[in-house]
Specification:
Length: about 950
């Protein structure tokens, strides 16, 4: 029996045991009386097998054949540590030694490869986070919680073997790196690792001697935690206690967060939820915070060099060779920002921020008599109007225009997010915050440079002394405690709390006061003053303050692709609408009882878009009001009170429109709270309704039978109301002929046909301007809104004159702003834009292309159940099983959150909230819908 504790520096290379599977099976039978089948599992330094009964069945456990360099005392320590964690944390699933026919399945084997220790530990069900798929913030947070739980559980434990020396002990990282680097054949790898190591050791040195030490797992990584099978589950099991030692306690979370870095889209900031969770359970000291990121970098270096060495020693070790790329990605991402920045960002996330670098407090470096003009390049700046920000050279162009207008100098402040020149479609948060202040001079200008931390750059050249700078050329002035070459020209807004630790505001050096930072409390203020039920998208939404065409833009300069906003039908911030509103508000805006041209002209144009018999228009302010009025018109015209509506639909929030809305997604008690004058027929959903596929033809006869039965019971309907394209379900087309049969039956009984075109009307379907055209019918009453106002509160109801005249039985009709001069002018302008820019044709062509892209996704991703809709009213339905159609509700919500990270605004719809409602502005480009499809493919491929 080997009682000598392992010392990595005495052994160095660790070839993995390679006991033949057949021999391991025989030994389990001969030594332990167990007949089993074994399946080889990967490992870097031990040999692992999954153990199953002969003939298959549920796993009995995992056979671990320890590397022969480890003593029995060390193996006992691993098992004791696992038992200690299991005792303190009963909610965690921790593996334990399995009992066999002859007792615990553990002991020493005499093998063809010498004496080896083998044990069978319990099989812990679940899935690891292995691979480089995406990790959601909540999963990352859970990793930190698990690391803290293990750390706290082992804090008071001791063991005689705890002093062993492992290559993974970060206390020995410098020596490990030095020794392995000598054997690394790639000079580029050696140099990269050496630079990262030197910086990390320099940052670690001042605090290393004072860091607390304890027994720890030191491998609570994505490979060594498991989560139950299922949707949106979180890890609740910790396995593989093979690296238990006594080391710096902060190393526990350093190892954990390093394993996050190779996952899709991860940056150093992606690890913050784990660090914060660890700190909540096991508070980090100030020295430990200082040490944390240097240790992450050192872990990355050790992983890279050790992994490459292991492959050189054992090129058949697929586990080690398969990890090489992700290990290098860990190091690259850990070293992507200066250590000072990462540490400051961590402090900020933990609520213990370090002091920001001071702004420039010396005199301005400009010559006397120069009075600079500030270039406002922010999201709210007029310079960003009408898409001017899309020009990659927008900042330079704006500066030159200001000089042309007579400015003797133009200053762009430092550390303020810039929209001008920002990219429009980015899967990562773009770098929109300039680190330096910039100045352009109208004439050649001599600058008096004070030296020190202030750095002045013209092009690629840094001025080291007073010098003359050329006219109309950008001069960057940077204030930093680091080497200027280590500072990028711009950083991500979310990273600014880290960079502010090393970058001061140089703007005052150019004679302009540094902008003051406003508190970021707007969301809290909104939630304090706005009714809770008036919800907002996302739990932590971006602050959107500008739109342009199919884009929405945050105050941080992040540009999002808006794929959900059918309110802004002709695109956000259309200049023709702006011009029309500006002109009309200079002329007249009053209520619709006055006599003016716009209401008449707009009414004529609306009526002209509809069949001839629909010749009379009412103007209101919203879709809810339009549906409400349509219902009241039907009741007045028929002297009846009963309305039949399609189930699972949403029509609005007013009393009448809400009464006929039976979508449980909008109101879980919708069916139970309907007034007795509302009756429903089955949702004619040919995908997941009661009748599917070809059987969907049965919906219409059944609806007709239901309507006739109601009439026989004394409830003949005043009207039948439905969307003409089933919008709430995600744009599911009604079965062919459905409305023709139902409308005929309703009219036969003296009722009216009401078409809700609020969502799908006005060209959105591409092939049809109105949804009812797809069904080959003409309704009696049409309710329309959303698209007709392009974001302006505008709705309309169009019907026949005789029906409109019957409203007098209900009294008079009046809407203060419905049909006002301003709303009418906006409505006509929207029509002009749709016609002039051929937006219905764009919906047909671009929408058709997008639908084809989405259908292609369905061929590769089983979660895609169906692609619904037409034109630019599409629905992508997610299901867990294509046979049962079990809704993928939780997955859909997570997909929307991930898409937001990738720069796409998307929301779920449907009673099960498992359909993406794809309703972008009608002007959306082919490039934009391709980006949407690409990002969706990435999410479905890498996880959410």
């Amino acid at each position: 029996m080997n009682d000598t504790l392992f010392d990595y520096f005495a052994h160095g290379e660790l070839p993995t045991p390679t006991l033949p599977t057949a021999e391991a099976v025989a030994l389990l039978r001969d030594v332990h009386g167990l007949d089993v089948e074994l399946q080889s599992l990967g490992s870097q330094q031990d040999q692992n097998f999954l153990v199953r009964p002969v003939g298959g069945g549920e796993p009995l456990g995992v056979l671990k054949i320890s590397n022969p360099v480890f003593s029995e005392t060390e193996i006992e320590m691993q098992d004791a540590a696992a038992a200690a964690v299991a005792k303190v944390e009963p909610g965690l699933r921790i593996p334990e030694i399995v009992a066999g026919p002859r007792g615990p399945l553990t002991g020493w084997w005499e093998t063809s490869q010498g004496r080896l220790h083998a044990r069978v530990i319990s099989f812990v069900r679940g899935a690891t986070l292995t691979g480089s798929g995406y990790l959601a913030p909540r999963v990352v947070e859970r990793l930190g919680e698990l690391a803290a739980a293990v750390s706290v559980a082992l804090a008071g434990e001791t063991h005689p073997a705890s002093g062993r020396v492992l290559q993974w002990d970060l206390r020995h990282a410098e020596r490990v790196i030095t020794e392995i680097a000598e054997t690394e054949p790639d000079a580029g790898v050696r140099e990269y690792c050496a630079a990262a190591t030197a910086a990390a050791l320099a940052a670690l040195a001042p605090v290393a001697d004072g860091l607390p030490r304890q027994l720890g797992h030191f491998d609570v990584t994505d490979d060594n935690v498991l989560r139950p099978h299922g949707v949106s589950t979180l890890p609740d099991a910790v396995i593989d206690f093979g690296d238990v030692i006594e080391s710096w306690a902060v190393g526990e979370i350093a190892v954990t967060v390093s394993s996050v870095l190779h996952h899709d889209g991860a940056t150093y900031a992606s690890t913050l939820p784990a660090i914060a969770a660890f700190d909540r359970r096991r508070p980090l000291s100030d020295d430990e915070i200082t040490a944390l990121w240097p240790l992450v970098v050192l872990r990355g270096v050790v992983l890279v060099l050790s992994g490459r060495q292991q492959v050189r020693l054992d090129d058949a070790n697929d586990y080690a060779s398969g990890a090489l790329d992700r290990e290098f990605e860990i190091l690259r991402r850990a070293a992507a920002v200066p250590l000072e920045v990462a540490t400051a960002r961590i402090r900020h996330a933990l609520g213990r921020p370090s002091a920001d670098a001071a702004a420039w407090a010396g005199p301005a470096i400009l010559p006397a008599g120069i009075h600079p003009v500030v270039l406002d390049a922010t999201t709210l700046s007029p310079l960003s109007d009408e898409g001017a920000w899309l020009d990659a050279d927008a900042v330079e162009s704006a500066a030159q225009r200001l000089l042309d207008d007579g400015a003797d100098a133009v200053v762009l402040p430092a550390l303020v997010p810039v929209l001008l020149g920002a990219p429009s479609r980015t899967p990562e948060e773009p770098t929109t915050v300039p680190t330096a202040a910039s100045v352009w001079f109208a004439a050649p200008t001599r600058l008096e440079l004070p030296g020190g931390a202030l750095s002045v750059r013209v092009g690629d050249g840094i001025l080291n002394s007073s010098a003359e700078v050329p006219a109309r050329t950008r001069v960057r002035v940077l204030l930093t405690t680091l080497e200027p070459a280590d500072i990028p020209d711009a950083v991500r807004p979310s990273d600014l709390p880290g960079w502010r630790a090393v970058i001061g505001d140089a703007t005052p050096a150019l004679g302009v006061a540094a902008p003051s930072a406003a508190p970021d409390d707007l969301l809290e203020r909104r939630e304090a003053v706005v009714a809770e039920v008036q919800e907002h998208y996302y739990s932590r939404p971006p602050r959107i303050e500008r739109g342009w065409r199919e884009y929405l833009i945050g105050v941080d300069g992040r540009v999002y692709l808006d794929m959900v906003n059918n309110v802004a039908s002709v695109g956000h911030a259309h200049p023709r609408i702006h011009a029309a509103v500006s002109r009309q508000t200079r002329l007249l805006n009053t209520n619709s009882r006055f006599h003016y041209a716009a209401i008449t002209e707009y009414g004529e144009r609306l009526a002209a878009l509809l069949p001839d018999e629909l010749d009379t228009v009412f103007f209101v302010n919203s879709g809810s009001e339009a549906v409400d009025l349509a219902i009241r018109l039907a009741m007045a015209a028929t002297s009846r009170q009963d309305i039949v509506a399609m189930a699972e639909a949403y029509h609005g929030w007013t009393y009448a429109s809400d009464a006929v809305s039976t979508s449980i997604a909008d109101n879980p008690n919708a069916l139970e709270t309907r007034p007795d004058w509302v009756h429903t027929v089955d949702a004619a959903n040919s995908y997941r309704g009661r009748h599917r596929g070809p059987d969907a033809t049965r919906y219409a006869p059944e609806a007709v039978a239901r309507i006739r039965a109601l009439a026989a019971e004394g409830h003949a309907p005043a009207g039948f109301l439905s969307e003409t394209f089933y919008g709430n379900a995600g744009g599911v087309a009604l079965p062919d002929g459905y409305l023709r049969e139902v409308y005929a039956a309703v009219r036969e009984l003296g009722g009216l046909a009401i078409a809700d075109e609020v969502q799908v009307g006005f060209g959105r379907l591409g092939a049809w301007f109105w949804g009812f055209r797809q069904q080959g019918v003409v309704p009696d009453i049409v309710a329309v809104a959303k698209s007709i106002g392009a974001g302006f509160p505008l709705g309309a109801v169009i019907t026949r004159r005789e029906i409109a005249d019957r409203y007098r039985t209900q009294g008079y009709f009046f809407s203060s702003t419905g049909g006002s001069p301003l709303s009418s002018v906006v409505g006509m302008t929207v029509l002009d834009i749709i016609e002039d820019e051929e937006l219905q044709e764009n919906a047909r062509v671009v929408g058709g292309h997008l639908k084809a892209r989405l259908e292609q996704l369905g061929e590769r991703h089983p979660l895609v159940g169906a692609v619904h809709g037409s034109g630019l009213y599409l629905g992508l339905e997610f299901v867990r099983d294509r046979e049962t159609l079990e809704p993928a509700t939780e997955e859909t919500a997570a997909i929307c959150d991930r898409l937001l990270e990738l720069g796409v605004i998307m929301q779920p719809t449907g009673d099960h909230q498992n359909v993406l409602k794809i309703k972008p502005p009608l002007c959306v480009s082919r490039e934009s819908v391709d980006y949407f499809a690409d990002m969706l493919d990435r999410v479905l491929s890498t996880g959410f």
